[in-house]
């Protein structure tokens, strides 16, 4: 049997890929990061439209999604594909270029989340 202290030093394994530095398990099967990465705003997903600081361009912003970082990136990828637009995921928010407020609210409701419009 291997010593547990020796396993914690492994950063990458050709068999498993990236390893978690905290528990020594593969990142895909690591539970220590998932627990701390889940966000919650009372279970309400807010969708809003912003133009401030974007040279007058519309950007639809989705906040409060209770997913970890990997899940948030995957959801962002799916929503961008449905809207046929570009965008990004940063700081726990999904930003999609253009005014897709109604479409995103409908899609997120169909996914089972409580969705509210943010802003006026």
The Rg value, from CA coordinates, equals 18 Å
- Taken from the alpha-carbon principal axes, the silhouette is elongated
Biggest beta sheet summary: 5 strands, mixed
Q: Please tally the helical runs, counting DSSP H or I stretches of 4 or more residues.
A: 4
Structural class: alpha+beta
The helix content is 25-40%
Task: Report strand %.
Answer: 15-25%
Distance between the termini: 62 Å
Q: What would the average pLDDT be, to the nearest integer?
A: 80
What is the element string, with H for helices and E for strands?
A: HEEHEEHEEHE
Tell me the strand order in the biggest sheet: 5-6-4-3-7
Taking pLDDT < 50 over at least 5 consecutive residues as the criterion, the unreliable ranges are: 1-7, 35-40
Give the total of beta strands.
7
Structural write-up:
The longest helix has 15 residues. The protein is elongated and about 50 Å long. It is an alpha+beta fold. A five-stranded mixed sheet has the order 5-6-4-3-7, covered by helices on one side. Strands 1-2 form a two-stranded antiparallel sheet. The relative contact order is 0.16. The chain has four helices and seven strands, in the order αββαββαββαβ.
Summarize the SSE layout with pairings.
Blueprint: H1 4-7, E1 12-13, E2 17-18, H2 32-37, E3 44-50, E4 59-63, H3 69-83, E5 87-90, E6 93-97, H4 101-110, E7 114-117
Parallel strand pairs: 3-7
Antiparallel strand pairs: 1-2, 3-4, 4-6, 5-6
